[in-house]
Amino acid sequence: MLRDYFPVIWTNTSATGQVIVKRVSEESRKELEKATENRLLEYILGFTHVFRILVESKKPLLGHNMLTDLLFVHEKFHNPLPDKFNDFKKAIHTLFPQVVDTKNLSFKLKKELIEKGLPVTSTGLDQLYQNLCSDKGRFLVLHSPYIELSQIQCKYKDSHPLHEAAYDAYLCGYVFLRLAHFQAAKKISATVSSPLGFRTILDAVKPWMNKLNLIRANVPYINLAGPDPPSRRPRLLYVSAIGMSTLSASKLAEEFSIYSSVDVQLVDKRNALLAVSTYGGCKDIMRAFKDHKTLRVKHYNVFQHSRPVRYTLWGAIAVLGAACLWTLFGDQGKVR
Fold first, then answer.
1. Which helix (H) or strand (E) element contains residue 20?
2. How far apart are CA 283 and CA 286, in angstroms?
3. What is d(CA 247, CA 237) in angstroms, rounded to the nearest whole number?
4. Complete DSSP assignment for 187-219
5. Cα–chain-centroid distance for residue 54?
């Protein structure tokens, strides 16, 4: 208010809350106003500064199961999400040319890690970290990198605040270095005495670069730098209740989960769609429920099991039949 009424003064607030007033020239006043405006803009932009630095640097971007994170970043700090999925992929690849999803990387290396004696039972970020920071995990291969927390983050040595941004970033970076080094070290001789450089480690994961993990989808990952892979998932299964019983999604998931990882979607009270993660699990379910007393399990057929498709087909048949009858009897009427 004082600044508005008196153009030759400038006001500040001290640390103790006192208002300090000083006389300034017109030129100084403009400079102070500009500086205040810039500080306000800096405050409003917030994390956008970090986003812009990441984009400008073009350095590799790491994440764990990071598709949702990239969707959020695009929407909040770049532009509204485009209507077309391919446009989103192109935009993200332009912003971040090198993206590594440690979830996808861990899936690809899980079998080899187990063969090396590392008990990888889960590819969750915390479980991977616990495995890879163990004595066995740190010395799987030659010249394993030494990873140490900085002084300002030493609190993470004693506490493990999962889902805290800085801590999760540390876990993700740790897991990436261990997995990437494991992959790179497979190509070096036992006689090599020097540690591997970061460029060598990064080049080792190029086959998995720009490939984002997808959870329980038709394809295992999406490729930001090109076409997505073909589907390797088994066909959907269609589950129907026998008799007068009704279905429960939670009970179905519990019953089928002993054969494979599954997703259940109820169609109605007596029918459900079942997505199975593996072909082996799908075969086991079909075999186990072949003569089941309360459930009938079949491969999903869109023409047989989709009501909208069935109604459309019957409607088309009815229209076609009516048209044929009209043509037949209409023509007969004209002949007479």
1. strand 19-23
2. 5
3. 15
4. TS-TT--SPPPHHHHHHHTGGGTTEEE-SSSSS
5. 19
C-alpha–C-alpha distance, residues 51 and 70, integer Å: 11
On the CB side of 263, how many CA atoms lie within 13 Å of its CA?
A: 12
Distance CA 139, CA 193 (A): 15
Three-state SS at 79: coil
| Euclidean distance between CA atoms 237 and 301, whole angstroms | 9
DSSP 186: T
Global pTM reads 0.71
Could you give phi then psi for residue 276, rounded to 5 degrees?
-110, 140
Q: Which residue has the tokens 């006192």?
A: 18
- The C-alpha atoms of residue 100 and residue 203 are separated, in whole angstroms, by 12
Strands 99-101 and 61-63: parallel
Q: What is the pLDDT along the chain (336 residues), one digit of tens a residue?
A: 778 778 888 888 888 888 888 888 888 888 888 888 888 888 888 889 899 999 999 999 999 999 999 999 999 999 999 999 999 999 999 999 999 999 999 989 998 999 988 988 888 999 999 999 998 888 888 788 888 887 777 777 777 888 888 889 999 999 999 999 999 988 776 656 677 888 989 999 999 999 999 887 778 899 999 999 988 888 889 999 998 889 999 999 899 988 887 889 999 999 999 988 888 889 999 999 999 999 999 999 887 777 766 667 667 777 777 777 777 776 555 545
Angle at 227 between CA 226 and CA 231, to 5 degrees: 145
3-state DSSP assignment of residue 141: coil
Determine the Cα–Cα distance for residues 272 and 276; give it in Å rounded to an integer.
13
Q: What is the DSSP letter of 292?
A: -
Quick check: 297 and 285 in contact, CB under 8 A? yes
Q: How many beta carbons lie within 10 A of that of residue 228, not counting itself?
A: 18
